[in-house]
Amino acid sequence: MKEINFLKLFLFIVIFLSIPTLLLAETIIFSSCDNKKDGFLKNEYILDLEKSIMTRNYIYNQKTFQKYRVTDLSVKKENTIERFIYTENNQILTDKIGYPQFYTQFLFEVNNPNIKVKTVINNVEGISEMSNCKKIERFKKES
Prior knowledge:
By secondary structure, the protein is of the alpha+beta class.
């Protein structure tokens, strides 16, 4: 009888400890994203929830590339950006970019094709839509 109770307790602990890993072992890809301000040949966001990293791959169209190249010679037509991510209130946010009084973050909602920018200035928060993605793919990692 003690062996059965021990086995039940052991299975419960194993399942309980593996649930967070199973939930976070997922990759979400937002692709074919239109931007409200700029033009892109490619604009995609890859959220690796297991590693807590967002990777943005993009290629500017010629008009947008020339617009930014005029003022900054370091601008590349094709680029990749990585940011740390975390979840909060069913939203996925990138790490804060900026100073404590002023910062920005990308804001994702799992089943929402709209990507938003969260801006905070002196504790006043503003959220605006940045991109609309035509395709959302979710991949579960099996171990």
